[in-house]
Amino acid sequence: MTRRIGSGKLVIATHNDGKLKEISALLAPFGMECISAGSLGLPEPPETGTTFVENALIKARAAAEASGLPALADDSGLSVSALDGRPGVYTADWAERQHFEGKPGRDWYMAMGKVEGMLQAMGADVPRDAWFSCVLAIAWPDGEYAVYEGRVDGTLKWPPRGQRGFGYDPVFVPAGGTQTFAEIEPEAKHAISHRADAFAKLVKDQFDS
Ligand code: ITT
């Protein structure tokens, strides 16, 4: 049986405010005392893994070791079928201006435009199927860990629409929907997102009796 985090303190090992908001909302009913990595001044470890699982574990382990508390990390990304799954694990890197323009900082509109430009260059008929993946990893300071994987399928629409959410939400329309993740209410995204899918598995394993 997996070790459980119980109802004590949990470090949320992310420096992404959008993720922090969503994870805190998902954890709210479970009575955890959530502490953000930013409020503890924890550094961001280099994400040197080649899979979502590896990177989630790198972040969770670094936060658990530095804080002496159990830590939950999220590694996630957008995969586009026509781009053979790219940007995938490199989703955040594609938003780094440095990656394309040599200037520091993240620019999500540039990143969404990069993906769109690649699809348009492939022709008007190119399939626009995409999916978001999310891996949630819990690490304890003694090295034990647990991993939960989630996914949501959808299509990419251009131009970007909506002001909610974060990252690539303005171009992602979940399967069966008409609005982007940035147009729908946060609760509606929480019901179907890749993060919610991974979180449902975490809840089943960690909190169900
Ligand atoms: P941390 O590592 O500090 O958690 P990060 O933003 O660097 O934050 P990742 O390395 O996991 O996180 O990068 C994943 C990127 O994928 C993230 O920055 C988002 O832009 C994008 N992404 C993940 N989940 C998303 C969601 O629900 N909606 C839109 N974009 C999302």
Short description:
The chain is 32% helix and 21% strand.
What does this structure look like?
The chain is an alpha/beta fold and about 210 residues long. It has one domain: Maf protein (Alpha-Beta Complex), CATH 3.90.950.10. The chain has 6 helices and 6 strands, in the order βαβαβααβββαα. The chain has a 6-stranded mixed sheet. Helix 5 packs across helix 6. The longest helix has 16 residues, at about 50-65. The chain is globular, with a radius of gyration of 17 Å. It starts with 8 loop residues before the first strand and ends with a helix. The mean pLDDT is about 95.
Strand percentage? 15-25%
- Alpha-carbon distance between the termini? 12 Å
Tell me the number of strands.
Answer: 6
SS summary, helix count: 6
Arrangement of strands in the largest sheet: 2-1-3-4-5-6
Ions, cofactors, ligands: which are bound? Answer: inosine 5'-triphosphate
What is the CATH fold-level name?
A: Maf protein
Mean pLDDT: 94
CATH class: Alpha Beta
Q: Which CATH-level-2 architecture? A: Alpha-Beta Complex
Note the overall shape: globular
Low-confidence stretches: none
User: Major β-sheet, in short?
Assistant: 6 strands, mixed
The percent range for helix content is: 25-40%
Class from helix and strand fractions:
alpha/beta
Oligomeric state of the chains present here: single chain
N-to-C SSE string, H for helix and E for strand: EHEHEHHEEEHH
CA radius of gyration? 17 Å
Count of distinct structural domains: 1
